[in-house]
Amino acid sequence: SSGINAEWPLRPGDTDVCIAACKALAALVADSSAREELLKTNALGSLVSILKESSNKEVLRKAAWTIGISVANEEMAKELNKNGALRVLMDMCTNDIQGVSNLAVVALEKLLHYDLAAKYWHMGTLSQTDVVKDGFYDTGAHKPGDDFKPIKLLLDRKVDNKRAVLYVSSIGADPEPADMKSEASTTGSTTNVKTGRGTAKGKKPHKAEEKKEEVPEPEPPKEQKDTGKPRVDSSLREYIEEATSAVGPLPTQAEQIAALSVYVSNQMGGPVTSIAALSYDLHIAQIKADLKTNVIPIGFIKRGIFYHRALLFKVLADRVGVPASLVRGEYNRAWNEVTLVEGGKSKHYLVDLMWEPGQLLEVGSHGAGVYKKL
Predict the structure, then answer these.
(1) Could you tell me the CA-to-CA distances from 32 to 1, 3, 73, 113 in Å, in that order?
(2) What pLDDT is recorded for position 197?
(3) Residue 17 and residue 317: Cα distance in Å, rounded?
(4) CB of 339 within 8 A of CB of 333?
(5) What distance in Å separates the CA atoms of residue 353 and residue 359, rounded to the nearest whole number?
(6) What is the DSSP string of 203-225?
(7) In the chain, which ranges are E strands?
(8) Is 335 helix (H, G, I), strand (E, B) or coil?
(9) 322 Rama sector, left if φ>0, alpha if ψ -120 to 50, beta otherwise
(10) What is the pLDDT of residue 11?
(11) What is the SS3 assignment for 15-50?
């Protein structure tokens, strides 16, 4: 593996050379140490370039097959995506060349399996078995002709009025200064997680939970040295610790879901009677200005709507061990769906995090439809 050429100066017109190189690369990725060496070279970038520029059927087939083989872990997937593999494979999936589109579909599925940020961008849904980890980010739904962008590129962009990029990091890449404490310790609700109530029948939560606590004006984040990486999210760390200790021990999954939904709502401004009254857009704009970036750690948001709350619920549910999906809708809508076994049958519910947190709305019901669209 130490002899891997760092440049791989392949020209798409060299058919035999390209095919031989693809075969050699496919053999190398089977070895873990060789994969580590490959990540230090431009080999994967050259492989993607072959797909972009070649018009030879056999070269395209072999390159698509090799990408499918190369997606052996999360690091390889992200490196391929950084070099534009996602867009190329998406285009190739509609290719009329026999054998090419099928191989592209397989490669694309593997790529998305290991890069959940790309999967959510492309498909708009994460399943109950997709576990959101640190490093995940939500850029919003992809638009025709748009490319999936690496987090570094998004961090380098000037602050604008477009939708903020939501970032997940419960650890943080750099030590946190002693004076930079979680905003959650001075703002937002301190509601006991265990007070969550709710039923799978769509009943309202207990009256004690309907009262919305007063949420103080969030303080601007303190200054932190610019490291070229997303900010440390100590709030999310606290959320995970609290949810794990308080929600995890609850005896039934239904109780866990209800308690977690109330907890998430309270961290994001509480039950909502009017989105306009929540003033979430001004709150988000202020955070972007304070951080000097469009990339916002999810724990920094104290006034959130559907898609902010749904992502936080998914992150915490994955940590607690509650199976939950994440689904993107239109017009800034997103929601979580869960499955409960009742009377020996599986029933699917949408989790209300906005209007009556703790309530479960059966998928397909009128209430669930209203939550998704109105």
Answers:
(1) 10, 15, 10, 19
(2) 45
(3) 49
(4) no
(5) 8
(6) PPPPHHHHSPPPPPPPPPPPP--
(7) 125-126, 137-138, 165-167, 295-297, 325-328, 334-342, 345-351, 360-362
(8) strand
(9) beta
(10) 62
(11) HHHHHHHHHHHHHHCCCHHHHHHHCCCCHHHHHHHH
Residue among 44, 50, 41 at smallest CA distance from 16? 50
Tokens of 46: 């050259």
Q: 253-267 and 234-246 helices cross at what angle (nearest 10)?
A: 150
Task: Kindly state the DSSP code that residue 340 receives in the 8-state scheme.
Answer: E
CA-nearest of 130, 36, 31 to 76 is 36
Q: Which of 350, 318, 319 is nearest to 336 (CA)?
A: 350
204: tokens are: 């309202």
Task: Give the number of other CB atoms < 10 A from CB of residue 345.
Answer: 7
- 89, burial (CB in 10 Å: exposed 0-12, middle 13-18, buried 19+): buried
pTM of the predicted protein model: 0.82
- 346 φ, ψ to 5°? -85, 130
Q: How many CB atoms lie within 10 A of CB 346?
A: 8
Q: Return the structure tokens found at 347.
A: 């029933």
Cβ neighbours of 245 (radius 10 Å): 12
Residues contacting residue 47 through CB under 8 Å, at least 6 positions apart: 22, 25, 63, 66, 67, 70, 80
Strand partners for 339: 348
Tokens of 135: 């490093």
Two tokens, residue 217: 């004006």
Residue 181 identity: K
pLDDT means per 10 residues, the chain with 374 residues, are 49 81 88 87 89 89 92 91 91 78 92 95 96 96 86 93 94 40 39 47 42 49 55 93 96 97 97 90 96 96 97 98 96 95 93 97 96 86
Task: Compute the distance between CA of residue 236 and CA of residue 300 in angstroms, rounded to an integer.
Answer: 8
Question: For residues 168 and 298, is the Cβ–Cβ distance under 8 A?
Answer: yes
- In the block, tokens 């440390």 appear at 232
Instruction: Find residue 257's DSSP bridge partners.
Output: none
- pLDDT of amino acid 359: 96
Closest CA to 371 of 318, 343, 329, 342: 329
Q: Would you say 122 and 148 are in contact if contact means Cβ atoms under 8 Å apart?
A: yes
pLDDT of residue 221: 53
